Amino acid sequence: MSIIQEVAEWVHARTDGAISAEVAAAFSLTVSKASIVMGQIHREARFTTRVEHFCMVGENGRGRHTRRLFVDQVRDPQWHKTPVIGINEEQQIVRFDSIVEAERTGGFVRVSITRCLNNSQATHGGYRWTVATNEQNG
């Protein structure tokens, strides 16, 4: 599970929402990284969020403007593994259960494989790439 999904579920469970300092303390992050994660949660369509702006007054009497994030709904990520097949000019075939596995074990670049799959690029690493169907995976 990604840190974004974990933080979103944690904030969703809290009735009073969270500020970046609370997220940082709970997940051992810096406050700036927690703020970035909260911004990503707020921008992603799979989370229904709202933000309240308020001013915190410190011991010195000076105010600091901040925002509290509330996550009203959390949906699971929409990504899934895409099995791929690469075929080179000698008709040699390589099969991988996912694009990430092709990168990790095969030494290919996942962005380039994705470009081949959506026809933005013809080949990568000497292979033409296609999505593997169930019959081809056998």
Automatic annotation (TrEMBL):
SMART domains in alphabetical order: IENR1
InterPro entries per record: Intron_nuc_1_rpt, WH-like_DNA-bd_sf
Domain of life (superkingdom): Bacteria
Gene3D superfamilies documented for this protein: Winged helix-like DNA-binding domain superfamily/Winged helix DNA-binding domain
Protein name per UniProt: Uncharacterized protein
